[in-house]
């Protein structure tokens, strides 16, 4: 792993085939800042979603792969990007490939023409962070939304985290099913709870390490004059307390004991009540020292942007790769001072930034510094001077 961010990595060319509203798109860009402008529904977010599929998971919309295929198309889609990096040029590809009438379509991943086992393989070449309008209610919404937000943070620095989370969810479903159907089968439950405990402690430890590193970086780099206030972070949950206070082996033993003792209660509830699936990410507005949920709407938006910018810096520090940043309709909700501060902070990150907005004037100050592109249904062209 490199000790310094690879700040010059760029997507030089993005090709879409039968993806969302694009029957065919071949888009070349040359600058570190890319702004996509156009009316709502024109297809701006579809471009960001296509890029977001080059990391594990279901992309920034969390959609099913089949729903991404163009309506009226063959039911499959392909996304390819040419990555221009200091260490060479690479072609990355992903998409959905039909397997015939009797079989389900399958996800494909390719690197320089060779097949890859999963999207986690792309982490060797790029990392991605993003911010979308649906996160505006993050601090006031349910804990599950913040857990997904947290896991995406972890996934950007640990490409295997998603696989561990998915394995834990499967193990928990198996335990819940046995509790419902065969609650007296202690041997089976013991075996399942051993697997659950191993996965749970690994998931909780990865979350805690990422939050600890991010919180430390925020405090080290905070600027009181910044238009984006700093956040203080912590994790809340019984499993998080175990991981924070005990060695991993002892935490596993303690959690297995909790699972064993909680079997009647979990069976009555129909789910496992203690574990990483109950963790909450607590965020406070640092300068005011108040819960983020009680801050004003504008303060929450600025706090969220500051958190994503700090996460991007952490990704660069930990991976050696300056991340690609995807910002969907962010600038429209900022006053001129914060908008200028955002553009300045984005340029300082060193990675390529893709932004969307309905109004071209939002990006007027980036003239000569960004590729500003007009998006219309099915096509994208440079904005005329």
UniProtKB/TrEMBL annotation:
Q: Where mainly located? A: cytoplasm
The alphabetized list of GO BP terms reads:
DNA replication; DNA synthesis involved in DNA repair; double-strand break repair; SOS response
Q: Does the keyword DNA-binding apply?
A: yes
GO CC, one annotated term:
cytoplasm
- Compartment list: Cytoplasm
The answer to whether keyword DNA damage applies is yes
Gene3D superfamilies documented for this protein: P-loop containing nucleotide triphosphate hydrolases, RecF/RecN/SMC, N-terminal domain
For this protein, the record's Pfam families field holds: SMC_N
Q: Which InterPro entries does the protein's record reference?
A: AAA+_ATPase, DNA-binding_RecF, DNA-binding_RecF_CS, P-loop_NTPase, RecF/RecN/SMC_N, RecF_2
Q: Kindly state which keywords UniProt assigns to this record, in alphabetical order.
A: ATP-binding, Cytoplasm, DNA damage, DNA repair, DNA replication, DNA-binding, Nucleotide-binding, SOS response
UniProt-annotated binding residues for ATP: 38-45
The record's SUPFAM superfamilies line, in alphabetical order, gives: P-loop containing nucleoside triphosphate hydrolases
Q: In this protein, which residues make up the domain named AAA+ ATPase?
A: 30-381
Question: What biological function has been recorded for the protein in this entry?
Answer: The RecF protein is involved in DNA metabolism; it is required for DNA replication and normal SOS inducibility. RecF binds preferentially to single-stranded, linear DNA. It also seems to bind ATP.
What is this protein identified as? Answer: DNA replication and repair protein RecF
